[in-house]
Amino acid sequence: MVVYAVLILNKAGGLIYQRDFNPGLQKISANDYLIIAGTFHGVHAITSQISPTNDTGSSGLEVLESEHFVMRCFQTLTGIKFLIFAEPRQPNLDVVVRRVYELYADYVMKNPFYQIEMPIRSEGFDRHLAAYIKPQA
Amino acid sequence: MASTTRARLGEEVWKSRTDKINAELVTLTYGSVVAQLCKDLDGDYAEVNKQLDKMGYNIGLRLIEDFLAKSNMQQKCANFRDTADVISKVGFKMFLNIIPTIANWSSDNKQFSLLLDENPLADFVELPDDGKAQGELWYSNMLCGVIRGALEMVQMQVDVHFVSDILRGHDTTEMRITLIRYIDDEMPQDDE
Amino acid sequence: MVVYSFFIFDRHCECIYIRQWLESTSTPAPAQPLSRPVTASSATTTATSTAEKPTSGNKLSMAEQAKLVFGVIFSLRNMVKKLCGPDDSFLCFRTGHYKLHYYETITSLRFVMLTDIRTENLKLSLHQIYVNLYVEYVVKNPLSPVEHAGGEGVNNEMFELGIDGFVRTIQ
Amino acid sequence: MNRDPSPFRPTSTASTATSPTPKYANLTASTNIRYSLTRKSIYDRHLNRTKTSELSKSAFAFLFGEMVQYAQKKVYGVQDLEKKLNLHGYAVGQRFLELLLWRDGRTAKRETRILGILQFISHQMYRAIFQKQADTLEKVRENEDEYMISDNDPIVNTYISVPKEMSQLNCGAFIAGIIEAVLDGHCFPAKVTAHTAPNDMWPGRTVFLIKFEPEVLEREALRVGS
């Protein structure tokens, strides 16, 4: 299981966390990541609007596939988006994204020195995320 | 979603997905926070209530993420009654290991009460007998803020306040929760 | 496997073909094909001559839907290109309710198909539609103009039949 | 640093309680604390009722985090913040000491030696509060009056990441306050401070440095001498 990168977007679509774990994506400037995050936030909302089935509260984009990667997007009920980029045909991305959310709930939400909606600079979160993602590579 | 499934979920999350610690540590730490507030605000209990509520609100904004992550709830509550079940049988169970009874539903299903027959925050507590505290201080007011903050993060604006407290000599500890409105999601500007 | 709708966008980012199948019926009874073409990029949504039949399921008119669909695939395509470089291409995305398949030719013709979420990747199918149907019946059709501004000449008889037949096979 | 003996200082002014409505019962004439007739007051409930009851660690983490943020708004600089946390810990430590000694009942031994009290803290006390023993108890070789208790992963710090500009801060000052209260309670007055001492296994490892007052050493010398 190779995870290339993890991105976290706040409710307004602002990029609050970005980290590469394994080579697989292009080297992209931080500014470009900001643009990608912003656009994706808009696109995500529209994907639920164009749903042909008439279910109310249809969810937005959840999985995006390309030739070289698969991206799992998990949006929490509070509007936070977790984007996990991994090698294609990656089986258990749902488990991975849920675990990342738990680590976020523990090491970011419970850190008194983290300000809500701001970029994440919690050393504890980095350490535990790397410990969780790295060995699987 | 039947309330029995909510009860089972609460039980299961408490058993298998919650790290546990000594309850008295939380009780005494909460006590030291309230005491510090009473000292800082030199006995202005109305202000202490407000500050406790504000601190609770700050906690609620964060606690909701922990709640959603651990309880793995994917869908929003179907209606306010379901929300009441989730708060009592999953939320309270998961964090404070108690299940308050839900009571006194208003006819329009917009108001209900939570009766805390057990309140771990208020163990060993006796309000100061300065003649004011028992009339003005809501000792566990932080809980109101927590619920208000948490629900606001899932697009529900509510008012939460205590109506009675055993510490004040009442027979029950009762919190009144009122749904003010559902906050609709902010839509991103349609830049397509 | 249910197919909901099918779009073709040309290199000018215009929607030159829309086809929708009513979701309720299992066999894809042909929906009201768009008799007057709709341009995705045109600011005003040109009212189609036939009564504006709201597409099954949501209130967006076909014109609006085409515009939104194009907006989505255009952004995602650029995002993938930026993330992975020019040789990568966007294949499909899935939400909780539908899956959107995408195929782009070298000539920037874009084929989009919306299906239910269980459908496997349709890149090959869209490619076959391009090769066996679009090229055969539209490009090689002497009557149809070279460029299909506004979808002109795309919804000819043979192409429509081909699409129906094809959808039934992958049903 | 005035350590207020009890946070609830009854004000001396005569209380002008509203005349208690009939449904309240007063325990004694002197106090106007009201208790409902039906509900038992805290004096009727057994002290051991919550001895083994548990709460979620998250609840404590959020409460503690908010306490840190509240304290942070009121202070300038790391030392003041640690002092505030120490005060909070002290209040908690005082109560835990009473509770635990009461619970030991007849078996409670009055510690008279420095080593005795430090072992009590790092074993029984630590286990009662944090459900695990402290990891090490050592004496500082260089100076006589200093000892160290270490905890590889203090629960107060589990979720806390201190920003670089406050790298000196260790929220374990709260636990240092608890230890200080227990020491003072046993007449071993001392200053306790928390210091981050990570090793490769435990990045969050914290050492509580205990510096005894001179009179404690004198007493110890007398006791050892006799």
Shape of chain A: globular
Cα-to-Cα separation, first versus last residue of chain A: 6 Å
Beta strands of chain A, count: 5
Radius of gyration of chain C: 15 Å
CATH class of chain C: Alpha Beta
Strand order of the largest sheet of chain A: 2-1-5-4-3
Q: What's the overall average pLDDT of chain C, rounded? A: 75
Strand content of chain C: 15-25%
End-to-end separation of chain C: 5 Å
Main location (chain B): endoplasmic reticulum
Pfam families (chain B): TRAPP (PF04051)
Keywords (chain B): Endoplasmic reticulum, ER-Golgi transport, Golgi apparatus, Transport
Protein name (chain B): Trafficking protein particle complex subunit BET3
Task: Write up this protein.
Chain D: Residues 1-23 are annotated as: Disordered. The complex is a heterotetramer of chains A (137), B (192), C (171) and D (226). By secondary structure, chain A is an alpha+beta fold. Chain A has 3 helices and 5 strands. Chain A has helices at 30-49, 93-107, 123-133, and strands at residues 3-9, 15-20, 63-66, 70-75, 81-86. Chain B has 192 residues and is an alpha+beta fold. Chain B has one domain (21-182): Trafficking protein particle complex subunit 3 (Muramoyl-pentapeptide Carboxypeptidase, domain 2), CATH 3.30.1380. The radius of gyration of chain B is 17 Å and the shape is globular. The mean pLDDT of chain B is 90. Chain C is α+β, with helices and mostly antiparallel strands and 171 residues long. Chain C has one domain (3-170): Beta-Lactamase (2-Layer Sandwich). In chain C, 32% of the residues lie in helices and 18% in strands. A 5-stranded antiparallel sheet of chain C has the order 2-1-5-4-3. In chain C, helix 2 packs antiparallel against helix 3. Chain C is globular. Residues 24-58 of chain C have low confidence and may be disordered. Chain D has 226 residues and is α+β, with helices and mostly antiparallel strands. Classes of the chains: A alpha+beta (137), B alpha+beta (192), C alpha+beta (171), D alpha+beta (226). Chains B and D meet through strand 1, helix 2, helix 3 and helix 4 of B and strand 2, strand 3, helix 1, helix 2 and helix 3 of D. Strand 3 of chain A pairs antiparallel with strand 3 of chain C.
Mind sketching the topology for me?
The complex is a heterotetramer of chains A (137), B (192), C (171) and D (226).
Chain A: E1 3-9, E2 15-20, H1 30-49, E3 63-66, E4 70-75, E5 81-86, H2 93-107, H3 123-133
Antiparallel strand pairs in A: 1-2, 1-5, 3-4, 4-5
Chain C: E1 3-9, E2 15-20, H1 62-84, E3 90-94, E4 99-104, E5 110-115, H2 123-139, H3 157-170
Antiparallel strand pairs in C: 1-2, 1-5, 3-4, 4-5
Chain D: E1 24-26, E2 34-36, E3 54-56, H1 57-74, H2 78-104, H3 114-130, E4 136-139, E5 146-151, H4 173-185, E6 190-196, E7 206-212, H5 214-225
Antiparallel strand pairs in D: 1-2, 4-5, 5-7, 6-7
Helix pairs in contact in D: 2-4
